[in-house]
UniProtKB/TrEMBL annotation:
SUPFAM superfamilies per record: P-loop containing nucleoside triphosphate hydrolases (SSF52540)
Function in brief: GTPase that plays an essential role in the late steps of ribosome biogenesis.
Name of the protein described by the UniProt record: GTPase Der
GO biological process, one term: ribosome biogenesis
Gene Ontology terms for molecular function: GTP binding; ribosome binding
A Pfam family this chain is assigned to: MMR_HSR1
Keyword hit for Repeat: yes
Organism: Rhodosorus marinus
Xref: Gene3D superfamilies: 3.30.300.20, P-loop containing nucleotide triphosphate hydrolases
Signal peptide location: none
Amino acid sequence: MTTGGAGFVSNIGFTTRLVSGNICRRTAGGGKSVRSWAVERDAKQELGKPDVEFDIGDFGGLEEGWTLEEDLPEEGTVSEPKQRLPMVAVIGRPNVGKSMIVNRLSESYRGGSIVHDLVGTTRDRTYRRAFWADKEFFVVDTGGLIFEDDPNQVFLKEIRQQALIALEEAAAVIFVTDGQQGVNPLDEQIAVFLRKECKVPVYLAVNKCESDNGEFMAAEFWTLGMGQPFAVSGIHGTGTGDLMDEVCFNLPKVVDPVEDTAINVSIIGKPNVGKSTLLNRLVQSDRAIVSNIPGTTRDSVDEMVENDGKLYRLIDTAGIRRKRGIEYGTEFFMINRAFNAIRRSDVSLLLVDGTEDMSDQDGKIAERVVDEGRGCVIICNKWDAIEDKDNSSWKKMNDYVRESLPQLTWAPIVVASALTGQRTANVFKEVDNAVEQHRRRVSTAVLNEVLYEAVSWHKPPATKAGRQGKIYYCTQVSVRPPTIAMFVNDPSLFRENYRRYMEGQFRKALGFAGTPIRVVWRGKSRAPIL
Ligand SMILES: Nc1nc2c(ncn2[C@@H]2O[C@H](COP(=O)(O)OP(=O)(O)OP(=O)(O)O)[C@@H](O)[C@H]2O)c(=O)[nH]1
Ligand SMILES: Nc1nc2c(ncn2[C@@H]2O[C@H](COP(=O)(O)OP(=O)(O)OP(=O)(O)O)[C@@H](O)[C@H]2O)c(=O)[nH]1
């Protein structure tokens, strides 16, 4: 095998070779750096090729001591999110300075960059990680909230829904107003709304109060009936410390996730598919060792189950046990509840009813699992109720589910009956496999061999103007889900179909059953050092 295959940039200075146990990098001065022997061992084990000697293509500019995770561009979904941090929602009418406040609050964390940019939800809400004193949390920016429908503003309804979702999952709310404009009728509407809908503490921030009479300007906001107004300035940072002391005082402190080894599992699906029947089956068939553990999400209850020496946290079982129409009547809240459960889990058990046709709702939930980057096992339930089963029934069922849920081609399907317990014993095994894949790290050497093969078969595209897409190299930058950064000359040269092709090739070569994977395309601004 030679380096510099189709689409690889050849002779740019650093041909990284994996030869006889060393990855060596040629440098301009002829010196070479040796990377670890373990890389080759990993590569050989993963590829099942103990004796192979191979090149890994051209790695433009991988320098000694350069840790790839640190060097990644800021945008993107590459950091490993902490699952159970409390959320602080920032809410208010448009233009009061919410974004400025969010930046200010999150700036202690990596310069305020977005570190948890949830695909699919960032359009609507932005989560940023923040610390204050000994508390760690996410700050959630909601869109500007307006209650009157204005035909010119088509997204108002969506923004309101997003704000509702943010409130649902929040442990505290910061209500931002504009001190320079004084109390506005929209502020009053939001105050009424918060008093009615919001069950968590609300802190009133009066922004743009950087001037000497800031305290005086803020005092006017006592009339909103939301308690003490905090005079702050998002731009200057004044007053935000006092506000944060207050907000954080009541925030729950998060248990170090490293100590928490339980596997988080959510049971999701449309109404009536058998979620509570499956829950009871899983809890009964195993030893429910702890129960009624309130989660960070208001109102949720988790249950711990032990199976084969491992601990599983079944997430938001209150949401499953609570019957439809009692508290969360609308589809909106039901779906939202499922979305929250997905976010908190490592793996989701997506139940579908084998006796019924599948619908848009199944697709919506599946899509969210992918967007959140969670592992998934599809349970095709009520197998016992299928009449006139013959040899082909099982295959037909499988095919139908695959066809109906194209987002989840990678998720294993368990055809089961929660009612009779048939095949439900397989559920934990499938969860374990999915978790293993979800946390799997693949060495750079292996990834680049797959990349090399893929590029040899299908060269990166060139534009009509003759600009050639070039791939320098790729590396895994995070787990949960496995995320591969692809360093290229210009990401805009790589269209959706080529990106899909590349993702498909990684899957084909490396499996990753039970977990979504992400491939992020990065333009490499750093010029290779010759
Ligand atoms: N004087 C002053 N201006 C501020 C302050 N914070 C924000 N602004 C200004 O207020 C305007 C709106 O700020 P944003 O942070 O975009 O407001 P927002 O509430 O997020 O707006 P939407 O996204 O429309 O809801 C900008 O022009 C900011 O420069 C502040 O502390 N003092
Ligand atoms: N035949 C058959 N019926 C089942 C099975 N699992 C659940 N059911 C029945 O399906 C109905 C709904 O089951 P639930 O477990 O309440 O479903 P759910 O998904 O929790 O429903 P919601 O609370 O409405 O979301 C009940 O009548 C169950 O007895 C199964 O494996 N086979």
